[in-house]
Amino acid sequence: VQPFVYALDFGNSAANSSLTKGIKASGKTWLGLFQAAYNATWANQRDYNGNTADYSLDYWGADLAGTFDIWTAKVSFESLEGNGTRGFTTPLATTHAFQGWSDAFVQPLGGNKGFVDGIEDLNFTLNAKPRFRWTYLFNIDVLVRYHDFNNQRTGAGLGSEWNAQIQAALNPRLSAAIKYADFERKTRVPAGSATPPPSRTKI
């Protein structure tokens, strides 16, 4: 169990300043031939040092993964609250790793991923690490992930995304990877819900 506090006071980016407090629990255990891993996180983010208007937004997320031999399956859920004007943000995070590799939800200010109404992200991952190897192709890793995005404030659907990646080592010092991401937004948005970002595909 790990408590954490991030007090961010950016003189050159007041909108990204915030005070975030939370707690995280994670662990692993063996269940026969299966290894199970879990993670659960909760956090609250507030305005800090008068840099922005008053707000208070919550985050919570959890994931459960099971590994057997070369296979790993994982289910994850994240909820980043939004109030219709501002969403929970992570200015110092590696944003590409979250809410899909298409980066559809990257915001213009500061490169954060977020959404003014908040985002709920339910995603499923299947990962395989085949044992076969050749002289110039080994340590192969194949991953497929599906995201289902919803508006946290209103519950409306935002869209879905497929991600896929193949990576392998070419020699002990060089590796190669190819990634694919396809985000499809919902075409109809209920009244009172913010419009989701446009569809996009990235390779």
List keywords for this structure.
203 residues; 10-stranded antiparallel β-sheet; mainly beta
According to DSSP, the number of beta strands is 10
Mean pLDDT: 93
How are strands sequenced across the largest beta sheet? 1-2-3-4-5-6-7-8-9-10
Shape: globular
Distance between the termini: 37 Å
What would you call the structural class? mainly beta
Could you characterize the architecture of this molecule?
The chain is mostly beta strands. Helices cover 0% and strands 56% of the residues. The chain contains no helices and ten strands. The protein has a ten-stranded antiparallel beta sheet with strand order 1-2-3-4-5-6-7-8-9-10, with no helix packed on it. Strand 2 and strand 3 form a beta hairpin. The model has no long low-confidence stretch (mean pLDDT 93).
Task: Please outline the helices and strands.
Layout: E1 2-8, E2 18-31, E3 34-46, E4 56-68, E5 71-81, E6 118-128, E7 138-151, E8 157-171, E9 174-185, E10 200-202
Antiparallel strand pairs: 1-2, 2-3, 3-4, 4-5, 5-6, 6-7, 7-8, 8-9, 9-10
Overview in brief:
This protein is mainly β. The chain has strands at about 1-10, 20-30, 35-45, 55-70, 70-80, 120-130, 140-150, 155-170, 175-185, 200. A ten-stranded antiparallel β-sheet has the order 1-2-3-4-5-6-7-8-9-10, with no helix packed on it.
